[in-house]
Structure formats: C-alpha cells, structure tokens
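The passage that follows is intended for readers who have already worked through the single-chain material. We present the inputs for a multi-component assembly, then the predicted structure in tokenized form, and finally a short commentary. You are encouraged to pause after the input and sketch how you expect the pieces to fit together before reading on.
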Amino acid sequence: MSWVLIALMVVPLVGALVVAFLRKNDRTAKLAALAISLVELVLAVLLWTAYDPDGERIQLASGVDWIPAFGVRLSFGIDGIALVMIAVIALLIPLVIGAGWAEKLPAGRSQGGYLALILVQEAVTVAVFAATDVFLFYVLFEVMLIPMYFLIGGYGGARRQYAAVKFFLYSFLGGLIMLASAIGAYAMASDELGKGTFDWATLVTVVRDADSTTQTWLFLGFFLAFAIKAPLVPFHTWLPDAAAEAPIGVTVIVVGILDKVGTFGMLRYLLPMFPEASKNLAPFVLVLAVAGVLYGSLLATGQRDMKRFLAYVSIAHFGFIALGIFSFTSQAGVGSVSYMLNHSISTGMLILVIGMVIARGGSSQISDYGGMSKVAPLLAGMLLLSGLTTLSLPGTNSFVSEFLVLIGSFPTQPVFTIIATVGMVLAALYVLWLYQRIMTGPLRGDALIGAAAGPGAVGDPERKTAIGDLTKREIAVLAPLVVIVLALGFYPQPVLDVITPTVGATLTEVGVTDPVTVQEGK
Amino acid sequence: MNLLVAQAQTIEAPEIDYGAIAPLLVVLGAACISVLLEALLPKHQRWAVQLVLTLVTLVGATGALILYATSERPEQGVATLAGAIAVDSPSLFLWATLLVLGFGSVLLMADRSVEPGGAFVAQAAIRPGTIQDRAQATKTGMQTEIFPLTLFALGGMMTFVASNDLLTMFIALEVLSLPLYLLCGLARRRRLLSQEAAVKYFLLGAFASAFFLYGVALLYGYAGSVKLSAIATAAGGTDRSDTLLFAGFGLLVVGLLFKAAVGPFHAWTPDVYQGAPTPVTAFMAACTKVAAFGGILRVLTVAFENTQWEWRGVLYGVAVVSMVIGAVLGLTQTDVKRMIAYSSVAHAGFLLIGSIALTPEGDAPGVSATMFYLLAYGFTTIAAFGIVSLVRNSDGEATHLSQWAGLAKRSPIVAGVFTFLLLALAGIPLTSGFIGKFVVFSAAIDAGLTPLVVIALVASAVAAFFYLRVIVLMYFSDPAPDGPTVTVPGAFTTIAITLGAVVTLVLGLWPTFVLDWAGTGTFLS
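Having made your guess, compare it with the prediction:
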C-alpha cells in the first residue's frame, strides 16, 4: 500500500501542473483544483485505513537512492503522527479552495496560478511529513517555503512583500542551522558506521548515544528551526505578519498546516535523536512554551486586527503543544499530537469564518464591525462555535487535547502546568470578547453601515444591507468542520488510537518512564 | 666556451606526454591561428570564421580531454614538460569545467541579436563620447580580437590549474590576466565605465601579480626550488627560516586570493563586473573563479598541506571576512551586476572554506567539494549574466534594480528562469547551488571547521535576502511605465542560458555523476 503515500505527493504535483495550464479560465481551474484536492482526500482516507496502529514504527515505507555518495535516499514512510497530519492537510485543502471560490485576487493574477501554488504547497507539505531521510526532510523543509513565499507575496495584502520576505528569511535561517546539525549527525554516523547515512532510523541509533555536549549543540540546531517554524516565543514575529498579509485561505495553510512541521519535528527528530539533551534542556523549552501561552493569549486579547488575532491565538496554542511534548508523559504527548490535529481543525475553522466576516465587511479591523448577528445570524453562530472550540469548551474537539496536555504535564511539571492553565482563562476572554465586539449589540461599524454614517452611528437591521448571511457554498465548507469538531469532541478514540502507539514509541526512545502509567500498573 | 658546450650537451629535451596536454595544446594553438586569421582575413569574414574556429577548438579540446581521460592513464596522474605541468584527476576535472564554461561564455560573446553587432565595440580606437563613437555604437561590426583573447585567457587558466611549479603558475597567471584586462575595456556602450574597469583591473592585477612573484622569490629562497612538491618536502621539518616560508606563503596567497575575488582582496570586483561587457563579466565570474580556486587548491594541498596548522587560522579569518563583506555589502547594492559581484565575493568565501578543509591525516575532503561547487556556480553565473544582458532600454542594458520592477508581468519566462538562478545562488534545495554548499560544508565539518560552517550558514541567510529582494521586485512590484524591454534572445544566448539553467537544475536533482567524477583522484604530489 505504499503507493498511496507516493500518490498523495504525486497527485497534487501533477494536478498543479494541469491547473497552471488553466490560467485562462478561472472557473475550470477552480473545478479542477477542487477535484484534485478531493481525490487527495480519498487517498488520505485510504492511507488511514492502510495504517496499522499496532504495527511497526514507520509504515508504508518505500525508497530509492538519490545521492549515493552521501547515503541520501528518497525514502518515505509514516507513523501515527505523520498520518494524522497528512490527513488534516487533505481535509483542509478542499475547504480552503471552497472558501476562496468567490475571492477576488489582486489585479493581473489568475486563479490558475494561485491554486497551482496551493496544490504544490500541499504536495510538498505531505512530503515533509512523510520523509524518513533527514537530508530529504531538510530539502523539503526549505522547498516548502518557496510556494508559500509566492502565495503571500503574490496574493497578499498591502505589506505582502515585507511579510513574504520575513517569512522566508526566518524559516530559511532556521533551516540552514538545522542543516549544520544534520551534517554534524551525518559526520558522527560516518565515523561510527564507516559509511555516512541520513536514514532517520539509523541516525537515531547513532546520535542518541553521543556525549551530552555534542547532543546539546546538535539539539539546538534542530530546535532553532522547529522553534521558528512552530513558532515559539521569541521566534514568532514572522507569523503575525504572514497571517495578516496572506489571503485567508493561505492563512489557514500557514497557521493550520505549515506550523505543525515545527512541533512534528520536535517529536520526530528532537526527542528520539537527542534524548539526553531533550531532557536536559526541557526546562528551557518549557519556559518558552509557557511564555508563549501567556504572551500569545495576552496579545490576542489586545489585537485590533482579526488576522493578527488569529496568529497570536496560534502562538498561545503552540505553547500548549510544546508544553505537552516536553513534559515527557504519554498522556501529555498524546494530548499534544491530538492538539496539533485539533488546532488545525478548530483554528482552521475560526480562520475560515473570520475570512467570511472579512469578505462581507472588507476590513480586518475589529472596530469596523458590530452587531453583525442581526444581519447574519448563521455566521454569528459559526463564529461562536469556532470560537468555543478554540477556547476548548468541553464537548468540542480541542477540549480533549488541552485537557490531556494539562493532566499529563501536571505530574512531571506542576509549576509550568499551573501557569499554563491561566492561558485557558485568557482564551475565554479573548474569544468571547471578539465575538461580543463583532456580533452583538446594535448594528454599527464602518464596514457594516458605511463610513459615511459617522462615528457612533447605529444602523437599522431591518433596512436592506449588502451584508448577507452564509451562502450555500459557505455552509457546505463549514458543515464538515462542524461535524468533525463535535464528533471528535465526544468520541476522540479513533484519533487517539492512532497516535498513542507512536507517542509511546517516541517516549521509549527518549527513555523516560511514565509516572501515570506506573500508577495504573499497580 | 668548452665548458658551456659540455653543459649544453647534458641538457636533454624533457619528455612530453602529448596525449595528456593535448587539450592545452589545442586551445593555445588555436589561439595563435586565430591571431593570424585576424591579420589576414578581410574584416567582414572575421566574425564568422573566428566564431567557428573558437567553438570547434573548445569542442575539439573537450574531445581530446575525454579521449585522454577515458584511456589507460596512471591513476595518480602524470607530470610532464619536465614536471612543470601535472595532469591528474583534479586537473582533468578543472580543464573540463573550464572548457564547458568557456563554451557557454563564448556563446554569450558571439551573440549579435540582443545588441545589434554584439556587446563589443566596433572600433576600440575611437575615443569615447565623440561623434564617431556615437556612430560606432550603431554599427554592426565588432572587434573580433575578442575570440583569440578569450582563447589565450582560457589556455592560461588551463595551464594555471595544472601547473606544478610556481614559475609556470606565474606565467599562466599573466597569460590568463592580460587578455582579460583588454576584454574588460571593449564594451560597445558606456565605454568610459568599461575602460575605467579595465584600467582598475589592470593596475590592481599588476599589484597582485607582483605580490605573487615576490612570494615565489621568497619561497625559492626558502626551499631552493619552485616546485610545489619540493616546497612541501622542505617544509616537512627543517631548520630553514620560517620567516621566508610564511612571508612567501602570505604574498603568494594574496596574489591568488586577488584573482579569486576573495574579500578583503575583492575591491576591484564590483567595478570590473559592472563596467566590463556582460559576456566578459560572465566569463570572468565563471572561468576566472575556477582557475583561481583550482590554483589555490593545488598550492594549499600539494605545497603547504603539512604546514596547515600555521596558516589555517589566517585563511579562516579571510573566509569569514569574505562572506561577511559579500553578504552585507550585497544588501546595499542597487545595480544587478554589482549585486552579483558581491554575491561572488560571498561565494568566494564559501569556496575558500572548501579549500582549507584539510584533515589532520592529510586528507583533503574539500577538494572534490570545491571543484563541484565551482562547476555548479559557473553554470549558474553564466546563465544569470545571460539574462542580465537581455533586459535593456534604449541606453543599453538596464542594470539598475528599480528598472527590474514588475518584470514578471512583461516576460514571465525570463523572470522565472532568473528567479530559479537566484534561488540557486542563494543555495535553496533542488538546485546545484544547494548541493555545492552542502558538499563544501560537510567537508568542512569533516575537517573540524564547524564554527566556520555556522558563520557561513548565517552569511547564506543574509545573502538570501538580496536575492529575494530581486524576486520581490520582479514579481510583487508594479512595473515602471518607461521600464526596460526584454529582448528576445538569439540562438547563441538562448543556448547559453538554457545550458546554464538546465545544468543548475540537473546538478540539483542528480548530482551523483559529477560528484563521483570530482572525487576520482587527488592532486599529484
């Protein structure tokens, strides 16, 4: 069944080529891209069924030699975490295409070019999660930046050039430092084995026994790349700019998918390869994580721009994820991985809904809105639901993961966990306040009743306005997300079953015992 | 008198391995024929005949090289012409590199469709700025001496990378430099700038040659020989004066670093790259770099390998300075050619890292890595300058960056190819530039130069910014109303750009073949 994994990368690439040739006809291009992304979704479902949670560490593996001189192979395979991430990519891309159906692109840009770039981004991102060769991972990690650079720079808002370059340089620098570490690991492997290799499984066995100084340096190289990508405070400043300037669909991809490469990398590369350093440096990472939770929450509360608000919400959530990863318990680990999935779904939904708000008002400033539920009650409901899942209300998908992270981290890291809990309270504040400002009260705001009405003017909801409620297309885009949010909120078991063995294997590689599991064993 | 006769009888003509040096002989021989043609042929026939001769020569020399390389030959290489020329695996690789890069450059020089009559002046003797000068700019003739000059320069470069003693190296240095000085001054447009570049290059180059020669003299005083291997033997534990050795080494290396445009010896690079006719800039950026680093590699690994602990720190510092100068000053440039010049200074720093990557055991993992980098960089640069020559306004090439704004809207293909080349120069994966950086850095880490590699990586990230800036300009900015037009290139330029871009892509995807070939052997010592 390894062909499914290969097909998941090849189909969107070929599709992108086809779509790129349809630049003349926007409608055909959109239909073709949507069809390709749906094929991708079907393939992802096939992949899910082919994966055996209790099987080997890396499954559906395949590979060919690429640069034999350096032992570099084009090898792909998935574990439970990669599977979940690939599935969420395949899920989000059709929704992104659907949500952007009516979006106006900047003058002179065609849908064909835009959608082709999105499909290329999808292919490369799937490949990043599937790569099992460290060199290949690095290559894809950097190549991943190129379509995104053009997506932000070519189709974004007013300061798109600045945002695109900043995004690129931050990630590129992080990647380069990671490359130095990867070469260091390679040099160790060639000393030890007599022949260099970049194979992930082999490198893990070689590097994990290195002395702690070497491990620390190599760890820091990889960590910087992942901390920029994830992003952890203080390496996060590119994200608000990128999220604010990118078109809304691209924001979903940046925040919902690309960032996960960072936390995925921590689990796949940092922990197994450098167990010693991971444990030694965990306090340092946890400080950054908790700082991210508080900082992200506070800044989200204070944001005036909805898209920047989304970026800071994500920074807070990534703090939670990193907290779970570096607490080294299986509950927290499982919580973190399911958080990665649920963050993609709930924040993805929140971004799409906010995108619909912005599409109606034409402004991303919160102060330009008010009382919108009077004219768009369904949209208000969706904003409320996506907000509630973002703040992890019980019964929604995120609650399960946030709860698991906190309860799993508490036994090993009580202080950090208690501080992070403050983030949950702040989450309620920033989400509900956002909802309140946009949706409740009298109809007001420049975006809704026009700037001509003057400050403080109140609109009449009975009068016909240009602001309408959700269209059928928008409902079709949001409906699957609503179903998933509620389904995973009440019955998360299918996802947890896939994740748990991989997280367990990762923690075994780190060599930590699980305090919670020990208690259960008694 | 009798004594002299007796001495004369003991001197025997050295053995010459004609097969081994055939490529060299072909190039230099053709250069001489080319001079004769220049004198004998009527003016209107020269361009075609010279071009055919030059291209046939390069193909023939490559053929002779392949013939020799695939024949039965000693694995460690041969020293011929009384040990003056060493034909070993690195020599062959560098020769092949020079020949193919030279081929690409000659194609750019030969193009007469982009600028009617070509990038070179119709009559160099006309004073710039006069009425006759304005008339010559619109004529279609050109000084066809550029072809023999290029062949001589190429012959000099090939000799330079294969020379086994310092005197041969000096002569080769002069043979390669003098034609380049002339070529720099032959631009059809902006002739004052071009002539200024030539004079600057000549004066500074003469200084550098003097440094080199002084270094040779001191080293001769130290070792009693100018042979590289003899210097290595002498340095291997004697009570001779270290002052002579290190002063000689220092002066020699300054001369070499100057030619390679390594900072802080790079001062000529931006001016010369900007002023010279673009095809000549491409030729210099690609081939001179190969020749200079070929020489540096040979001198460091053959003659000074066993004193590496004394000089490594110095070149370490030079590499850092070069990368920092290239990356930081590159950020401030507003002219495409100057920007690529500073980028070449940064690349020279990366190449120097590969050149000093010697392990304590005497292995030189950096040699094959550096040679691969040179090949990859050369192709990318030639194609990049090819593209620069296409973007023009009524005044000639439009090299100011602001004129490139919105280029992608007008000519997406040119902008796309240039973007790809810039990404290669930045070292983004799936291009040859990345593989080159990767092999050089892994060789350096092998040799224990990890901190240097980290500095290099940061410099790469900084340098990436100015490449990105051009991409931003081309794609995300609106075109200026009176912006330049993109000329549809003729066959020659198209072939050169395609060759460069395709090699950049292929070496990024399947570098194995070239990597293996670069790693087949070591320098003859």
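Commentary: Residues 2-456+486-521 of chain A form one domain. The beta strands of chain A are 59-67, 72-78. How closely did your sketch match?
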